[in-house]
Amino acid sequence: MRNILKVGVKQFIITKVFLLFFLLGCEKVVPRGELVFKDCRVYSNEKLFTGKYELYKGDLFTLTKVIKGKIRNEKSFKDNVLLMEKKYDSCGNGLQKIYDNKGIKISEGPFVNEKKAGIWNYYIRDSIYLIKY
Fold first, then answer.
1. Cβ(105)–Cβ(99) under 8 Å?
2. In 72-115, which ranges are continuous DSSP H helix?
């Protein structure tokens, strides 16, 4: 009887985990042109937007994650290789990582008002160079 209960509990847990990942993976992805940007907030149909929006510029693709109208994460790709990632902690402020065309990180640091700020790390060959902005 204990073995039957163990199997039942495991199946229940596996089902719950699968449903959780399935529901979280079903985020809405919309073109950037369908959204309104106002006062550091993102709106869709006059409501705060939650989901992802995409932007294509030539062969560059940007995917941005928004939660309750606030931009949280932005990633840019070229030929399916990550070139840039930004993580926002407030409007226009956060941390940025920049990668080369092979996906190798070449620099990282904070940004304020969408501009480099503070100390940035640059990775060149086997060395790290620090530059203050």
1. yes
2. none
Residues 68-103 have pLDDT tens digits of 999 999 999 999 999 999 999 999 999 999 999 999
Name the helix (H) or strand (E) containing 18. helix 2-25
Q: How many domains does the chain have?
A: 1
**Each residue of 109-125: b (16+ CB within 10 Å) or e?**
bebeeeeeeeebeeeee
Which of these, 106, 113, 110, 114, lies nearest to 132 by C-alpha position?
110
Output the six-digit token pair for 49: 């937007």
Residue 7 lies in a domain: no
**pLDDT tens digit sequence for 120-132:** 999 999 999 999 9
Question: What is the extent of the structural domain holding 46?
Answer: 29-132
